[in-house]
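Example record

The entry below shows one chain as it appears in the dataset: sequence first, then structure tokens.
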Amino acid sequence: MACCVLDVGGWIFPRGNLVLDIRTPNNGTVEHYVIGDACHMPFREKCFSRIESHGSLNYFSSDISFFHEVRRTLRENGILMISANTYYSLTINLIKVLLNNPKGSLRLILNTIRRRYRWYSPRTLQRALEKGGLTTFRIYPNVSLYWRPTRTPHNLLAIANKPYKSGRLL
């Protein structure tokens, strides 16, 4: 069976054979594109060998629901690779928006207060993964979008899998 990689929230820069997002890209670069909600994926159980999501977790309606869906749709020995923005990223983005667009910074503050966007530390990301029924292999702090370590802690990269129970995956 061919390796099938799902990119959740990949939009313009997909990293998988199939992309799930809430809208289609304008440039039409993706052949296999599904419009849908990450917290209610329209896929059958155990159909992906790898699921990736980079920079989208902060915007999902429920990170725990997303992790439950990931657990449901991953095959045995399937891997989740996910990156999330940190509190430092919130601060830097707020300063940039404040300088360029004061009204936009007010919107960012209000959305953060309303919990529309979530920001993570390594500990909070690991707890969310565990609540979603996944086992964390490793969380890498200070990783940029292209997998290179950076000096500023903008993003976290987490690699997780389904938990083992008596030698078999759940």
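Notes for this example: The beta strands are 5-8, 18-21, 33-35, 48-54, 74-85, 135-141, 155-161, 164-165, 168-169. The chain is about 30% helix and 30% strand.
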